[in-house]
Amino acid sequence: MVLYVISAPIRPIFSDQENTTFELVSLAIVFCSFLSMGLIIIPEGILQHPQRDGQMVKSLTDSLVSCKEEERHQKNLNENEQLKKQITEIEGKRDEA
């Protein structure tokens, strides 16, 4: 609407120049399209992601939990290796007896 108000008075000035009229109309259409897309997309993005800071904190705590879980996993793997060695020793002693 705003561009129409601006371009309507200018159009009669450039009525004999078809290229200039075409450029004005094209610019008005492109600008209005971008404006309407912005009015639709920007609020939609804000509504979908209202608390980005909270998500960042959550991802940081998840990474800390992941580190703790990784340490626990490595500890369990080491313990499993020790238990396997003990089992093979016991089986070896059983086979000897």
Automatic annotation (TrEMBL):
Transmembrane annotation, as ranges: 24-42
Superkingdom to which the source organism belongs: Eukaryota
UniProt keyword annotation of Transmembrane helix present: yes
Keyword annotations of the record: Membrane, Transmembrane, Transmembrane helix
This protein's name: Uncharacterized protein
